[in-house]
Every structure is written in C-alpha cells, then in structure tokens.
Amino acid sequence: MAAVIKTPMHKIEAEAPPDRYARGWHCLGLAEQYKDGKPHGINIFGTRLVIFKGESGKLSVIDAWCPHMGADLAIGCVKGESVVCKFHGWAWGGDGVCTEIPYAKRIPPKARVKSWPTCEENKMLFVWNDPEGNGPTPDVAIPRIDPVFSEEWSDWSIVQWTIKVNCRELVDNIADMAHFVSVHGSDNVVYFANLFENHKATQVMVGLNRKLGGADEYLTTIASYYGPAYQITHMFGSMGGYPVESILLNSHTPIDQHSFELRFGVLVKKFPGMTQEACDAMVKQYVDLTNKAFGEDVEIWHNKIRIDNPLLCDGDGPVYQNRQWYDQFYMDAATVPAELRNKRLIEIDKGLEKKPELKHAFDNV
C-alpha cells in the first residue's frame, strides 16, 4: 500500500508592526473644521498633536504636550499666532517656539516643541510625517482635484471610523480583486490592474455591480494612493438610468501601531436637467449607497488579524507586490530600492474590449 503524503497545513505568521510611522502626507479631514479659532487635539503617530488657526488664517500643527508641566495644549486657547496652555499660560507659536511666559523675565532657550509641516489641498488639511525629520519634496505634492472647486459638483460628504487594527490591512485592498465579489456584490470583475510607480499605487477595476454601477452596466473605478495614507478614487457608474460620476476619498491616520482613524469622503457630479431638489435627493442617495458599500469593508477590518504570509491562490491580486510598494514608506528614504521607483503594471484581463486608460487618478504630472 502506497504511503499517504500529507501536505503541511499553512500556519499564519505575523511579526509586530514596524516601530515607526509611514513617511508621507496624512489627511486630517476638511480644513474648515479647524478654523473656528479653537485648538483641536488629535491622537496620531503614537502621540498627541494640536491644530490651531492663528489670526493670519494659517493652520499650524505642533506637539500638544506642553514641555513645561505636561498639560494638553488642546484644552487651551488661541491668542494671536499662538496656542496658550491653560495650565500656566505659556504660549507656543506655529513654528513650535515659545512666544510668551506671562510670569517670566526671559524664555528658556530650550522652550520649543515640534512643529509639523502642513498643506491644504482639495479643501483638506494634510500633515507630513517623516521619521528621519526631512520635509516633503515637490514630487510628492498632493494633486489638485478641480471638481472639488466646481459648482457642478456636490460638496464633500465625510464619515469617520476608528479601526482597531494596523493600517496595513486597509492598504491591502489596492491589490485585492476577489473581495469585490464576496464583500461588495460585484457580479463579474472583467478587468483588474495595478500600477505601481514611485510613491503612487493605482487600482483600475471594471465589473458589474448592481449597487453602484447599475444592473447591466459596468462600474469603472480608478483608485490611486498618493503616498501611504491618502487615496482618491474616480468612479463611473449609474443610478436610476442616469450616469453617475463620483470621487471618493479614503484616508487614514495611525493612532498607534494597532489602530487608526479612517476618513471616507464622497463627491458626486450634479445631474443636469433636474430640479435642485431632485438633484440633491439623487446625490444624497448615491452618497448613502457609497458609504454603505465602504462600510462593508469597515466590517471586515474590525474583524481580522494581521497576516504577514497570506495564503494566496491564482485568482488573487498582487498582494505581495503591493506590500513591497507599501514597505518603502517605512524605510529611510536613501535605502528605498530603485525598482520601487520604476513603473510596474500587473493586469488581470478577462476579455474587456474597451479598457480604461491606465493612469493614476487626477495625476497632474
């Protein structure tokens, strides 16, 4: 009798997440919410920061723990171009330098906290993180999205969740073709491509989806990460017989190595020929449908663990290649392999006649 050979069972492996936070721009949501003249505290990158608008109108982000006696600057107030600590009145400028101590004759030379680079684009506020302490370079600038400023489009509608898992689990979605069927109810994904290039990673997908694309029409999405934490999707579908063009924001900020804040936003192009009331109702309905669809992903992220060695099959997307791209943001910039800067294309084509253009969404380069 021939011996039975048993194939070893696959065992899940998972090391601890990196002991640093990703290099790149991180979106903090709509800039306008921070412009009310009050300091706003956020938990991010394993610490606490404070955001405030000075009298000049500029938004600043600095470390929130006052080095004098440890109070949270976010419970203080804004005076001129500084945030003032509620504990003893020490004032800190947007550059992190102490500007006033009301009861001192001189300010100690070391009275300085970290100031974080910021930018505003597409009505959003971004903060830059780099473990090496370097600032952002022009080649990683957030691209402008003209529809954000057009009256032909709706305003941003944004929802926010706290997810109790490392943020890499979210970024895996770039390469995850199979989940569109089981999670989002796509009937048939006929085209799926990934384009990796320097700090950008794009997913192009075409498939039937009754929820967002219509019963008999393809839903087409071009979803691009610009850096490790900010993704913009240009989506084309239909609803009620009307073509729908929309833009999705998917951004996250790590609270610590085991949790992150997730912001999801939707813009919809208004429907011409409709009354304002009917158009607003259609836009709201589509925003609600999109939020519900993204919420299906959120449910998964709330209920999964970290896996460094996923057991893949021939129908899965390029998960490992995507992780190689993502790992660059946790390396010193000088050590990033040259091949990660080159353009790499991976396609899964099931016979789509007219393919969408393979480019990064809203890339201005």
TrEMBL record:
PROSITE patterns: RIESKE
Cofactor: Fe cation
Residues covered by the Rieske domain: 25-127
Signal peptide segment: none
Matching InterPro entries: Cholesterol_7-desaturase (IPR050584), KshA-like_C (IPR045605), Rieske_2Fe-2S (IPR017941), Rieske_2Fe-2S_sf (IPR036922)
The UniProt record lists the keyword RNA-binding: no
Protein name according to UniProt: 3-ketosteroid-9-alpha-hydroxylase
